[in-house]
Amino acid sequence: MEKDESEYELIARYFNNGMTSEEQLSFEERLQNSSSLREWVEIYKDLDRVHDEKDWIYFKGDPEVLKKELALFQSKEAKVFSNRLKTWRQEQKEDTSKIKKYWLRPLITAVAATLLIAVFLLYPKNDDLPSLYNQYNNWNDLPSLTVKGTDKNTVAQLERSFKSEDYRDVIKRAQVLLKTPNNATPQIRLYQGVSYIEVASYDEAIATFNALIQSDAIDFHKGYWYKALVFLKQGQKENCQKVLEIIVANPTYFKHQEAKRLLKKLN
Amino acid sequence: MKKTNDPFIQDFLQGNPSAFKKIYTESFPKIQRYIISRNGSKVIAEDIFQNALTLLFVKLKNEELQIQSFENYLFTICKNLWRRECSKNRVTNHPLDTLVDESVDLAMFSIEQNQWDLYKEKFRELSDNCKNLLNSVFNKIAYRDIMIALGYASEGVVRQRVFKCKSKLIKLIKKDKRYRRLKQ
């Protein structure tokens, strides 16, 4: 379909919301009735999307095309390959974990501690948000999930998944566990929220910590600390400061001292 | 150049641990750095890398793909998977449990990647003038600045040229037989 300048102007004005309501109605009617104009406009939009790092071209074609492609991904050989890769990767992680456990971890810790001291001595004010996040995101502070009156097997499995860094599994298990009243609800929420951080689902992490903060759990205030870490991870300094101020104003809240130190560094 | 006779590709297609080790040692750290520096995490990087390798397996196995460099194409796929992930989260904000089945999602991405490859390839076939002009537009440079930088008489002339270049590109895309295969 050939397009002249006036047609382009029309399409450009359509995308820039520069049409009068009559023009827009008339253009949309043409779009409805003309598959070639519709196709042209779609490719036109896609050209911008392909070159925009923040956008993507989503599949909108014939379901039969998808069906054919899906058959390739669901073929026996694709599944065998995928499983082989997953198994190999898991074995590598286990090997690395064993090495770390027996000798590498103490060595790394010693080297890291030395470097950290050197960095603090040489650059005491080098506190950008990502490096602060890396200093404070210690998941070893999470409470044990062995809580009286809980289904030990299910909860223990969630903790095992967390330790083996299978965060998606933690999220799924937590979603199931939180559907029924549970003595370990606050702790499960912490594990779930931290797992959301690890898979970069920050909105879900915030929602999870908010649910903990608004609950009547004894340690509801732990939610504030982890919420502050979510903001820190995302580089949202002001939001992080606001949450830290709440912890600083309440000496009994979790990580009160750390919050004071972190807030000082951010100010 | 079809790479299926390459010994490394053969090892990869057979799921040989030596091929996996080479890929994970040489390419994964780069992808991980790329994703973490854009607010992602190590877990996301792992998932994306694994999906990209499965996609490469399917494409190479079915001879859908002609690539010059395995590593470069792997990096392109990973970047696009991450881009898609970010775009999806921004638009729909779905929690993880409502996502479609993993293999359906990957098959959809595979078609989208084919389309992306086609659009990029056709863009390279344009004249240098059109490429320069459209690159400026895609980089969101104002028409007035493009007019000054590229020496056009007026903004109107820039608009006209942009339209002609985009039309040319759309024609090249539609003429390619792969475009029809992606749609029907």
Question: What's a quick, concise take on this entry?
Answer:
With 267 residues, chain A is an all-alpha fold.
Describe the model:
The complex is a heterodimer of chains A (267) and B (184). Chain A is mainly α and 267 residues long. Chain A folds into 3 domains: 5-58, no CATH class; 61-125; 135-266, Alpha Horseshoe (Serine Threonine Protein Phosphatase 5, Tetratricopeptide repeat). Chain A is 71% helix and 0% strand. Chain A is built from 13 helices and no strands. Chain A has helices at 5-15, 21-33, 35-50, 63-73, 76-122, 129-136, 152-163, 167-177, 185-198, 202-213, 222-233, 237-248, 256-266. The model of chain A has no long low-confidence stretch (mean pLDDT 83). Chain B is an all-alpha fold. Chain B has 2 domains: 1-100, Rna Polymerase Sigma Factor, Chain: A (Orthogonal Bundle), CATH 1.10.1740; 125-184, no CATH class. Chain B has 10 helices and no strands. In chain B, helix 4 crosses helix 5 (70-92) and helix 8 packs across helix 9 (155-175). The radius of gyration of chain B is 20 Å and the shape is globular. Classes of the chains: A mainly alpha (267), B mainly alpha (184). At the A-B interface, helix 1, helix 3, helix 4, helix 5 and helix 8 of A face helix 2, helix 4, helix 5, helix 6 and helix 7 of B.
Provide the fold topology.
The complex is a heterodimer of chains A (267) and B (184).
Chain A: H1 5-15, H2 21-33, H3 35-50, H4 63-73, H5 76-122, H6 129-136, H7 152-163, H8 167-177, H9 185-198, H10 202-213, H11 222-233, H12 237-248, H13 256-266
Chain B: H1 7-13, H2 17-26, H3 28-36, H4 42-61, H5 70-92, H6 102-124, H7 128-138, H8 143-150, H9 155-175, H10 177-183
- CATH H-level name of the largest domain in chain A... which superfamily? Tetratricopeptide repeat domain
How helix-rich are the residues of chain A, as a percent range? over 70%
Strand content of chain A: under 5%
How would you sum up the major sheet of chain B? none
Number of helices of chain A: 13
Radius of gyration of chain B: 20 Å
Number of domains of chain B: 2
Cα(first) to Cα(last) distance of chain A is 60 Å
Number of domains of chain A: 3
Judged by helices, strands and strand pairing, the structural class of chain B is mainly alpha
